[in-house]
Amino acid sequence: MEKEKETLELGKLEYLILNYSVKDRSFWLKIFESIKPSYFEKEEDQKIFSFFKKYFSKYNQIPDVQIATNELRDIDSEFLSQVYGDSPEEVKNYIYDKTLKFIKSNLIRNALIESIPLLEKNQFEEIEGKIKNAVKFNLDVSLGLKLADIDMRYEKIKALETERIPTGFPQFDAVLNGGWGRKEIYACAAPPGIGKSIFLANWAVATIKQGFNALVYTLEISEERLSMRHDAILTRIPVDELIYDIDKIKESISSSRRQARQIFG
Questions:
Q1: pLDDT, tens only, 135-169
Q2: What is the number of domains present in the chain?
Q3: Domain assignment of residue 55, given as a range
Q4: Which of 154, 145, 151, 139 is nearest to 20 (CA)?
Q5: CA 230 – CA 196 distance, rounded (Å)
């Protein structure tokens, strides 16, 4: 922890970005196309990052410290040595989170600047598009797995197996080894009229009762009619009688939320 504290105190985020670019290739691959050298405040950081990008585009790797020192002679060699120095693995999540905010803040700032002339022309849709694209930006959080990393892969597999979400139907849970698995897609196929939509509604309600959010898409009925199916499952009131007992619907939804908070916090 002491080493982590020292690393975080060495300088601003720009230094940590350079440091992790050298240390962590996967980090570099995720950020190098999204960061412009001009995002850095200090000129020396701009020059280092610009050289990293230029060298990488030609050789598909970050230059080592000897090459960087030789090419960047106007940069203090001691500072370059620090950039190539070790940093603890414990700060990895910190770097990723802060770098995402660093990129996004620059994208939003640039979008606002670019929107000024558009505002004068009343081009509101273009302004909205620029702002949305900047706000929605995210870093790719995974570049896949290496088969050789056996221990890491099976640690993740064990975690996924223990984090399954029950479907609400014991028979399905038995088939699915406990329920829905994270990062997986499931399909339900059956002839018309069998009850696929009812299953979908039941699965959504069971998920909500466990404290999760559920998003349901349908091209069959209106969203209002679909919501009534969920109300019927929660209250055990037939769909055609729901309109006569609105208070019970409210109480059922509130009760489900309270139970979820008590169980999951």
A1: 988 876 565 777 888 887 888 788 777 888 888 88
A2: 2
A3: 2-136
A4: 139
A5: 14
